[in-house]
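User: Second chain of the day. Same drill as before.
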Amino acid sequence: MFEMYREAGDGRYRIVYFTELGEREREVEIDRAMAGEHFFGGYLLDAHKALAKGCLDGLLLKLNRGEVVLPIDVERALRAIRATAEGPGPVPPPAGNDREPAPGRA
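Assistant: Same format as last time:
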Protein backbone atom coordinates (compact mmCIF):
# COMPACT_ATOMS: atom_id res chain seq x y z
CA MET A 1 0.00 0.00 0.00
CA PHE A 2 1.32 3.43 -0.89
CA GLU A 3 0.29 7.06 -0.72
CA MET A 4 1.48 9.97 -2.85
CA TYR A 5 0.75 13.28 -1.19
CA ARG A 6 1.77 16.92 -1.08
CA GLU A 7 3.41 17.76 2.20
CA ALA A 8 1.67 20.45 4.25
CA GLY A 9 4.88 22.22 5.31
CA ASP A 10 7.03 22.73 2.23
CA GLY A 11 4.57 21.74 -0.50
CA ARG A 12 6.83 19.02 -1.88
CA TYR A 13 5.34 15.77 -3.08
CA ARG A 14 6.24 12.61 -1.19
CA ILE A 15 5.46 8.94 -1.44
CA VAL A 16 5.29 6.47 1.39
CA TYR A 17 5.10 2.69 1.07
CA PHE A 18 3.22 1.72 4.22
CA THR A 19 3.72 -2.02 3.81
CA GLU A 20 7.48 -1.54 4.08
CA LEU A 21 7.38 0.31 7.41
CA GLY A 22 7.64 -0.99 10.95
CA GLU A 23 4.87 -0.32 13.46
CA ARG A 24 6.51 2.81 14.90
CA GLU A 25 7.36 4.26 11.52
CA ARG A 26 3.90 3.47 10.14
CA GLU A 27 2.13 5.63 12.72
CA VAL A 28 4.43 8.60 12.12
CA GLU A 29 4.17 8.32 8.33
CA ILE A 30 0.37 7.94 8.40
CA ASP A 31 0.12 11.12 10.49
CA ARG A 32 2.46 12.91 8.10
CA ALA A 33 0.52 11.81 5.03
CA MET A 34 -2.83 12.70 6.62
CA ALA A 35 -1.55 16.21 7.35
CA GLY A 36 -0.72 16.64 3.67
CA GLU A 37 -2.88 16.80 0.56
CA HIS A 38 -3.78 13.41 -0.96
CA PHE A 39 -2.63 12.99 -4.56
CA PHE A 40 -2.80 9.25 -5.33
CA GLY A 41 -2.78 6.01 -3.39
CA GLY A 42 -3.09 2.32 -4.01
CA TYR A 43 -1.55 -1.11 -3.83
CA LEU A 44 1.32 -2.64 -5.76
CA LEU A 45 1.41 -6.31 -6.65
CA ASP A 46 4.61 -8.12 -5.68
CA ALA A 47 5.02 -9.39 -9.25
CA HIS A 48 5.95 -5.93 -10.52
CA LYS A 49 6.59 -3.90 -7.39
CA ALA A 50 10.16 -2.88 -8.26
CA LEU A 51 9.18 -1.62 -11.72
CA ALA A 52 6.12 0.22 -10.34
CA LYS A 53 8.17 1.87 -7.58
CA GLY A 54 10.68 3.09 -10.14
CA CYS A 55 7.85 4.56 -12.20
CA LEU A 56 6.29 6.25 -9.15
CA ASP A 57 9.65 7.69 -8.12
CA GLY A 58 10.06 9.16 -11.62
CA LEU A 59 6.60 10.73 -11.48
CA LEU A 60 7.40 12.12 -8.05
CA LEU A 61 10.53 13.80 -9.43
CA LYS A 62 8.46 15.40 -12.18
CA LEU A 63 5.91 16.71 -9.67
CA ASN A 64 8.65 18.21 -7.50
CA ARG A 65 10.21 19.90 -10.55
CA GLY A 66 6.88 21.60 -11.17
CA GLU A 67 5.85 19.51 -14.16
CA VAL A 68 2.17 18.77 -14.59
CA VAL A 69 1.33 15.22 -13.57
CA LEU A 70 -2.28 14.32 -12.94
CA PRO A 71 -3.59 11.40 -10.88
CA ILE A 72 -4.89 9.83 -14.11
CA ASP A 73 -1.30 9.88 -15.43
CA VAL A 74 -0.19 7.83 -12.41
CA GLU A 75 -3.07 5.40 -12.90
CA ARG A 76 -2.28 4.95 -16.60
CA ALA A 77 1.41 4.37 -15.91
CA LEU A 78 0.63 1.71 -13.30
CA ARG A 79 -1.89 0.02 -15.61
CA ALA A 80 0.71 -0.11 -18.37
CA ILE A 81 3.22 -1.73 -16.03
CA ARG A 82 0.67 -4.31 -14.90
CA ALA A 83 -0.34 -5.09 -18.48
CA THR A 84 3.30 -5.53 -19.48
CA ALA A 85 4.07 -7.72 -16.46
CA GLU A 86 1.02 -9.92 -16.97
CA GLY A 87 1.58 -10.40 -20.69
CA PRO A 88 -1.04 -10.46 -23.40
CA GLY A 89 -3.56 -12.45 -21.36
CA PRO A 90 -5.54 -15.57 -22.25
CA VAL A 91 -6.44 -16.39 -25.80
CA PRO A 92 -10.16 -15.83 -26.36
CA PRO A 93 -12.26 -18.80 -27.51
CA PRO A 94 -13.02 -19.02 -31.22
CA ALA A 95 -16.15 -17.28 -32.46
CA GLY A 96 -19.19 -19.51 -32.85
CA ASN A 97 -19.83 -22.92 -31.39
CA ASP A 98 -17.66 -25.65 -32.89
CA ARG A 99 -19.31 -28.41 -30.86
CA GLU A 100 -22.22 -30.51 -31.97
CA PRO A 101 -25.41 -29.92 -29.97
CA ALA A 102 -26.15 -32.46 -27.26
CA PRO A 103 -28.58 -35.20 -28.31
CA GLY A 104 -32.17 -34.05 -27.97
CA ARG A 105 -31.16 -30.37 -27.80
CA ALA A 106 -31.05 -29.46 -31.46
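Residues 2-86 form one domain.

User: Great, on to the next one.
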